[in-house]
Amino acid sequence: MQYVFFGTDNFSVIVLEELKKAGSVPALVVTATDKKMGRGMRLTSPPVKLWAQKSAVQFLQPQKLDDSVYYSLQSTVYKLFVVASYGKIIPKRFLDIPAHGALNVHPSLLPLYRGPSPLESQILDGADERGEVGVTIMQMDEEMDHGPILAQQELGQVQSSKFKVQSCAELQDALAHLGGQLLAETIPKWLAGEITPREQEHEKATYTEKITKADGLISLDDDAEKNYRKFRAFTPWPSVYFFDEKNRRVKITDAALEEGKFVIKKVIPEGKKEVRYEDFLRCAE
């Protein structure tokens, strides 16, 4: 089955691996361009490009989805587009190219948590603690996370108990595996005409916002549960930090919620190496 996969990050790679396990490898991958990253500003390839090279799959890295990309995709007969954490808005005319449209793997139970930060937002809201996290396979339209639903699954349906994540990265991996498996089950049924798309309950939609580095700032006087949720949601990025009495940034690298208290275990003071929090406090005295 000839299909194109749009994706960029580690979430996308896990979805690709699950599709590959099911015997469904894309004919082409569209991913982000290489970017300069880190202190040395080294040119770094996105995870999906590395996966494509390793798997001998053709790939494109367009700066933008312009006419040249459109006509390139249109020149080959593809049955389907699959999108998982691509990171760019795909214009409607692209979605209309394949005969069976474009399917998106979204890491929430739509219409809840539409937008750019569903993973972080679910942790901040305590959805994982309530067992209310999952994935949606939806047919894409011109609006963000708005299209009809083909399949949904709660993470709790495949876990023996409520899934309590320690970090956003852990939730991402769990939902990527679940989403890839659900997608592999859904695609054959969709192509065979066995699925009737279900319109989302748009009046129940909730929306997330783009996460910035500033979101990682916490006050040690805030509610303990709120601070711990922020720590889990923003680890590893943008990370959680506070400012000490000398207005120096202190990054929290290890913490826990113990007996209703937010317990900091390790920190990285600005310009220094990681230390135990008790040692940091001792030096600050």
Automatic annotation (TrEMBL):
<dbReference type="InterPro" id="IPR011034">
    <property type="entry name" value="Formyl_transferase-like_C_sf"/>
</dbReference>
<dbReference type="InterPro" id="IPR041711">
    <property type="entry name" value="Met-tRNA-FMT_N"/>
</dbReference>
<dbReference type="InterPro" id="IPR005794">
    <property type="entry name" value="Fmt"/>
</dbReference>
<dbReference type="GO" id="GO:0005829">
    <property type="term" value="C:cytosol"/>
</dbReference>
<dbReference type="GO" id="GO:0004479">
    <property type="term" value="F:methionyl-tRNA formyltransferase activity"/>
</dbReference>
<dbReference type="InterPro" id="IPR005793">
    <property type="entry name" value="Formyl_trans_C"/>
</dbReference>
<dbReference type="Pfam" id="PF02911">
    <property type="entry name" value="Formyl_trans_C"/>
</dbReference>
<feature type="domain" description="Formyl transferase C-terminal">
    <location>
        <begin position="210"/>
        <end position="260"/>
    </location>
</feature>
<dbReference type="Pfam" id="PF00551">
    <property type="entry name" value="Formyl_trans_N"/>
</dbReference>
<feature type="domain" description="Formyl transferase N-terminal">
    <location>
        <begin position="4"/>
        <end position="155"/>
    </location>
</feature>
<keyword id="KW-0648">Protein biosynthesis</keyword>
<dbReference type="InterPro" id="IPR002376">
    <property type="entry name" value="Formyl_transf_N"/>
</dbReference>
<comment type="similarity">
    <text>Belongs to the Fmt family.</text>
</comment>
<keyword id="KW-0808">Transferase</keyword>
<protein>
    <recommendedName>
        <fullName>methionyl-tRNA formyltransferase</fullName>
        <ecNumber>2.1.2.9</ecNumber>
    </recommendedName>
</protein>
<dbReference type="InterPro" id="IPR036477">
    <property type="entry name" value="Formyl_transf_N_sf"/>
</dbReference>
